[in-house]
């Protein structure tokens, strides 16, 4: 059942409409648990679109297994998706920095408050993101350490490669996930792939994970995979590689590859002179879980992240 979550009039006779698809079991008791699956808060992050399609398709083809309510929000920022813009076009605003919003505030804040109100009461929320156009990420869950104790068990069901627990930062207090966690809706963020693209294998991997989570919540009774055992960032070394020179970055390793300390990760080239400006080496032994996708770099550009072993 398609429902309108929010609708606001815009200039030139247009409107900003946010929709969800509510999937319910054939026999409703009134005691069903509810999961919300949201994506598209950034208009250049499209990986979640395929996941929404797959969840819709699987439930539609296996309706007997559905025992709870699934709300699917494929486009929280439809204006951004339509214009391939990360933020809200025309407003120069990152939508994921205005939650929980304000019903009486500006248009964007009003929309944010409507989204919060609609998701409120869910038993769980999965907030699907992709990387930006510059970096490729393995399927991972990111969560604030403030909520890690409550969320980590569910994260292990999600069939991801990594669970990254980060220290709380003030800027993240205005995200959708923080806003929902603060009102009692358990929520974590999934990051995967690369901006403006869809990685089908990642989408299928996450779809299987969401079904595992739904089964744990009593929303789904169909067969599910045995989820991957994710790496967890607690007490692990983290190597960050940034460019020291502007130029063209050419990686020498594969995404998801393992590297040794001081092993070359890539080179920064100068096409004008045909010279190598910088040899980029790994600071630690570990797994390359983030790798630069877009080759043009400036001084300070992030090139890779390497997840190492446990801290000594």
TrEMBL record:
Keywords: Hydrolase, Metal-binding, Zinc. Its cofactor is Zn(2+). InterPro entries: AstE_AspA_cat, N-alpha-Ac-DABA_deacetylase. Residues 33-215 form the Succinylglutamate desuccinylase/Aspartoacylase catalytic domain. CDD domains: M14_ASTE_ASPA-like. It comes from the Bacteria. GO terms for molecular function: hydrolase activity, acting on ester bonds; metal ion binding. This is Succinylglutamate desuccinylase/Aspartoacylase catalytic domain-containing protein.
